[in-house]
Amino acid sequence: MSQVRILLRKSLLSFWRAKAAVYITFLVPIVLIYLFGHVFGLYRKDSGPTGIPIAVVNLSREPAAQKLIDALKAEKAFAVITTFDLGKGATRPLTEADVRAGLHDNWYRYALILPADLLPDNGFGVRMKFLFNPRNEIESQMVNGLLQKTVFSNVPQLLGLSLQKNARRFLGAERFERFNRTIADTVADNFGGDREKIYQKAITGDLGFSDPSPAAGKPEPAPPPDLRRLDQSDQKSPGRSQTASSLAQPTEDRGAGRRTAEATAAPPLASNREPNTENQKSADIFSRMVKIETEQVAGKELKNPMASRLVGGYAIMFLLFAVSGSATTLFEEKNSGVFQRLLSSPVRPAHILWARFLFGVILGLVQITALFCAGRVFFGLDIFHHAGALLAVSLSAAAACSAFGMLIAAIAPSAAAANGIATFVVISMSAVGGAWFPVSFMPDYIQRVSKFTLVYWSVEGFADVLWAGRSLLEVLPKVGILAGIAAAVMVVAVWCFNRGKLFD
Known about the structure:
Layout: H1 2-17, H2 19-39, E1 52-58, H3 63-74, E2 78-81, E3 83-87, E4 90-93, H4 96-104, E5 110-114, E6 126-132, H5 137-153, H6 155-171, H7 173-191, H8 195-203, E7 245-247, E8 251-253, E9 258-261, E10 263-265, H9 277-289, E11 290-296, H10 305-327, H11 329-335, H12 338-343, H13 349-379, H14 387-411, H15 415-433, H16 444-450, H17 454-466, H18 472-499
Parallel strand pairs: 1-2, 1-5, 6-11
Antiparallel strand pairs: 3-4, 5-6, 7-10, 8-9, 9-11
Helix pairs in contact: 2-15, 6-7, 7-8, 10-13, 10-14, 10-15, 10-17, 13-14, 14-15, 14-17, 14-18, 15-17, 17-18
């Protein structure tokens, strides 16, 4: 047993002295737990994304339109943009042309347009338009659900305003006022309340659905036994249809990229039953009242949208691993005496470093090409129509990754330490930079930090080409950012090499 204790002590000391193994064993899982905790909302009461930019164009003069915008601003998931910055502190309201340009330039990915005929003069109902760029499927589904919730929570008042508008047109101003006054007096006489407040609510379209909960401290009165609530299904009467409604998936017109959102009544659990005629009629009526025209502004013609979104993120992560591992072979060359033989010839340390950097660039470019060719074979990615733009982004990303690998080798004392640091930093950057899940799922401060990572700009660059079909000229800003990152990191790496002992 003494031999076992001695060997166990030796193993523990060896593990503790190998700092890279310690980092990988303890630090990497802790960091990932922290990041995934933010993604799944474990640190806050309300889970979900925060601060997703959404542009809102308000062309309507209806007061309820502003109330809808205020409700969107109150939703923590959204960062509502309603003005266009003219510079020097001057702004103006957004127009549809502004939001289309912003969607094209990826300033935001979602826009809601409240048209001038939000409440049409020649009919009853509500009209809206929703423009979106589903660059990230998970984020898009979240935004779609939250937007529907916010919009439909304000539909009763909007429909009430539409009713009032049509009533004014039909009755005339004098009879219309007398009609609302009569309603207010009748309600006040029979149910109590302030007549003027009831009248003001009526003319603003408030039908009493804005606050369905009972007053605080007052229990909700029980309904008479012979009445049944309309918002609850009657389990004792199987012949009656359920009345709860839910918004169905929009139906798409593929030719124009537009979809009209329709509301359908919640169907029974089984699909083998005969279609419920009452539900179909209620759905048809509701779809005529609330019309949300949707338009996808990018990615409509892609054969495999999901692959176009994901391949770029995973490509840059594997590229970082490959190039970082290649850079750590500098330690093997030092230990084998290769450096001493090279430096005895007309070769200087700078030549070795730049040769290694260029090798990393070529290796990264070949690996990215192989990955995208595999994506072409497996998923049908379109990599040929914009080959020039894709090559520019790939080259700048490979240069940034190669410079990153050189920096890891410059600051690490050994090959094992370099591998450990590379594993920790690559995984962290991939999680923070958007290679795994939407950046919008992270807290605001991590979203700001993500923009300082090469993963973020690489993922954005690949998405611009593969998803949005951008040209070489349009992706040049992101190519420039990646090239700037490569240059800055390489300067720091050379400085660290000159101060280090790798070539001693």
